[in-house]
Amino acid sequence: MRRLACAFAMVAFVAMVAPVVAAPDALELVVIVHPSRAGVLSRETVQRMYLKRQRFWDDGRAIVAINQETATPARDAFTRLVFGDEAARLPAYWNEQYFHGVLPPIILGSEEAVVRYVASRSDAIGYVDARHVDASVAVALRLH
Amino acid sequence: MLVVLAATARFAAASNVPMAPVEASETPIASWATPIGDVRYTPGRGLGVGDTGLTLGGDLNVTLFRDEGEKAHLNLDDVSLFVIWEPIARLRFFSELEYENVFDIDSKGHVDSPDESATVERLYLDGSVSDAVNVRTGIFLTPVGRWNTIHAAPLVWTTSRPLVTERAFDPSVTGAMVFGSLFPTAGTVTYSVYDQFAKPIEGNPDFDPADHSVGGRLQYDADGDWSVGSSYLAARRGGEWRHLGGLDFLWSRRPLEIMGEAIVLGGEGTGGGATWGFYVQPVLAVSPRVALVARYEHVDAPGPFQLNIMTMGVAVRLLSTVVLKSEYQVVDRHARVAPAGFRASVAVLF
């Protein structure tokens, strides 16, 4: 009986704690593009686009990468999932790029603004929490 | 030296210390609404002038140094102003106007302005056809090795500069360059091919550029943590051609970063032998803001000119765009080009 009570207590504890622990990973981030560009992008390609190493789409149009404000959940998750260990080197990377006249991607202030911008421009790429995606944009990559 | 760094690296790796402060320099600290759009100033990213595509910025460096047996000096040795203009995605104008040695105060209180002239460090226009094909025309940094193209004080770990990155070739080229990036299955390959066919618009009388030079560079960046590059430069002076070949690498896995470059310079007019040299520079981040730096350099030129230079120091990143550096350099023989002594500096990207 004591073992059963113990097991029950453990299951109850896990059930209570698990959603809290899992909360940061519950954010499903998606990379979005204009519907006319429907297709899958790799994580490496998205990384190159956000580092401005790759500046043009396959059709020759210039890529406009959209970032979100620093220290927002979406920005933090994107940086972690796309850049991994390299994230710590990003400030130094952008310092070097600035020295060469290259500025970081532009920033929009909300997820809704990112969706609206990407929906209106076929050369844009952005990322948002999957819950903000609608039919006006296409998902190019899911990040977990 | 490497053993000590490796041992410390194991300790720092266990504490998961990143290589640089993670705060991004992206938030404007001042913004004004104007008829041409918002004018915003972001530290380390310059002043963005509305919707014009124009950005003004720069960097500066103040150095305190004392060579062995000499007086100490406080020197404002570099103020650079950038103008960046990107009216459309396929066109970018960039210029850097540099004031060097603006003032100098020695430990006796003697104030001097060693060089009041401004030099056009860079002035070029980039046109982009695609990622693989871009054309640059004007004055640009010579793409030999790594240091020369990122030589600004806020971007490097030491106040002093390795000899092999500046004395064997002209720091800039006035001419044209074709460059671009290719994306194989993994990583990025970048190339550049350039030709110097004009004299620079330089105010620096000490800079005596080659009559003509041609060169190229090939670099591979893995998506992960390493990169290798090779450079070639042929330069003609007074009818004599000299050829320079170089190899360089960067390896980084936090908290350790190792960078190195090696060059060989030979050809006509080199005094009957080749000049060669290399440096290896490990950097260990011991906290998010503090890094230990060591560098060993060897230079071997024709005649009795061999140098071994050891530099040990510490760099503190107060912000991602402000770095405080301190180092001591030891040289195995007296050499004016690489004096032994202490150096410290504050470098700011603004």
Amount of beta strand of chain A: 15-25%
- What does the largest sheet of chain B look like? 16 strands, antiparallel, barrel
Q: What general outline of chain B do the C-alpha atoms trace? A: globular
Ranges of chain B where pLDDT stays below 50 over 5 or more residues in a row are 1-24
The class by helix and strand makeup of chain A works out as alpha/beta
Helix content of chain A: 40-55%
- Computed structural class of chain B: mainly beta
| Terminus-to-terminus distance of chain B | 34 Å
Itemize the secondary structure elements and their pairings.
The complex is a heterodimer of chains A (144) and B (350).
Chain A: H1 2-26, E1 29-33, H2 43-50, E2 64-68, H3 73-83, H4 90-99, E3 106-108, H5 111-120, E4 124-129, E5 138-143
Chain B: H1 2-14, E1 30-34, E2 37-42, E3 46-49, E4 54-67, E5 72-88, E6 91-106, E7 111-112, E8 118-128, E9 134-141, E10 172-182, E11 188-196, E12 212-221, E13 226-237, E14 240-253, E15 256-267, E16 275-285, E17 290-301, E18 305-319, E19 322-331, E20 341-349
Antiparallel strand pairs in B: 1-2, 2-3, 3-4, 4-5, 4-20, 5-6, 6-7, 6-8, 8-9, 9-10, 10-11, 11-12, 12-13, 13-14, 14-15, 15-16, 16-17, 17-18, 18-19, 19-20
Explain this structure to me?
The complex is a heterodimer of chains A (144) and B (350). Chain A has 144 residues and is α/β, with parallel strands linked by helices. Helices cover 44% and strands 17% of the residues of chain A. Chain A has a five-stranded mixed sheet, sandwiched between helices. The radius of gyration of chain A is 19 Å and the shape is globular. The N and C termini of chain A lie far apart (41 Å). Residues 11-24 of chain A have low confidence and may be disordered. By secondary structure, chain B is mainly beta. Helices cover 4% and strands 59% of the residues of chain B. Chain B is built from one helix and 20 strands. A 16-stranded antiparallel barrel of chain B has the order 4-5-6-8-9-10-11-12-13-14-15-16-17-18-19-20. In chain B, strand 10 (172-182) and strand 11 form a beta hairpin. Chain B is globular, with a radius of gyration of 21 Å. The relative contact order of chain B is 0.15. Residues 1-24 of chain B have low confidence and may be disordered.
